[in-house]
Design goal:
The chain is globular. It contains twelve helices and eight strands. It has helices at about 10-25, 50-55, 65-75, 80, 95-100, 120-130, 160-165, 170-180, 185-195, 200-210, 230, 250-255; strands at about 40, 60-65, 85-90, 105-110, 130-140, 215-225, 235-240, 255-260. The longest helix has 20 residues, at about 10-25. It is an alpha/beta fold.
């Protein structure tokens, strides 16, 4: 298991740097980030992704279903919380109270490494539109399911299980058997099977976006995911453009995709 999977402060610092270096610049290609904007992060975890937006003068809201992660976010960004620059909420965004409070409220919504964990993506993605102001945009960053580590197996405790590529696409019983053979804890296996259940490819994602009445405003495919800088010491590298034109094959060789839609 990598250190960021067990050390919240390391994970937070990596979130901050990755957001400042890659997420913010990507979003600004279609929507400049200026003081006074409102930003929502769904699946905020420790809140590090929002830090660069706060520094830009945005009012931010981070929401997550895990209370312990919301506690960590409040701790790491305690000064910003006290200054009412950011609010962290442990709640399901489908609850009426959340929708009633934040309907048509946000300029930007961020889902960074989140959509691949969400069930009923066909229902969830169009629902996000309810929180956008006119002209608002949604950022998605996720690893396509068929890429070498699209099953998130890098969270495994056993070294060989965490670096073995592509075995997540095996039939469920075989995948589960390998994880059990590796001695992975049942909670880890359950989390990995969740990603298998909710698997999302580039093609499926784009179909959902189109069906939701949203338009792709910008896209970037990565041969080497920017977060692999922290996980594997690899330099981020954009995907060779001609490969992005090959449906289905691109899913196997693209480790991360960024989108802004609106």
């Amino acid at each position: 298991m990598l250190i960021q999977h067990s050390d919240e402060k390391v994970r937070f610092d990596q979130q901050v740097e990755n957001s400042a270096s890659y997420v913010v610049p990507f979003i600004e290609k279609t929507k400049p980030i200026v003081p006074g904007m409102t930003v929502l992060e769904v699946g905020t975890a420790e809140g590090g992704v929002l830090s660069p937006f706060i520094k830009r003068g945005c009012f931010c809201v981070g929401v997550d279903l895990a209370p312990q992660r919301i506690e960590m976010a409040n701790e790491f960004l305690s000064a910003e919380v006290a200054a009412h620059q950011v609010e962290f909420i442990c709640q399901n965004i489908f609850e009426d109270s959340f929708l009633n409070r934040f309907r048509n409220f946000f300029d930007v919504i961020i889902l960074k490494d989140v959509i691949e964990h969400v069930y009923e993506q066909e229902k969830f993605i169009p629902y996000l539109k309810l929180f956008l102001k006119p002209g608002g945009q949604i950022f998605f960053g996720f690893p396509p399911w068929y890429m070498p580590f699209g099953g998130h197996q890098q969270v495994c405790h056993k070294k060989w299980a965490s670096v073995l590529p592509y075995y997540h696409i095996l039939p469920r019983f075989m995948y589960t058997g390998i994880l059990k053979l590796a001695g992975e804890h049942p909670s880890v296996i359950d989390a990995l099977l969740e990603v298998k259940d909710t698997q999302i490819t580039i093609e499926r994602f784009e179909r959902i976006i189109k069906k939701s009445g949203l338009k792709v405003l910008n896209q970037q495919d990565y041969l080497i995911n920017p977060i692999y800088k922290y996980k594997f010491g690899l330099k981020p590298r954009k995907q060779w453009k001609p490969l992005t034109w090959l449906p289905y094959f691109r899913d196997f060789v693209t480790t991360c995709v960024y989108y802004t839609v609106g």
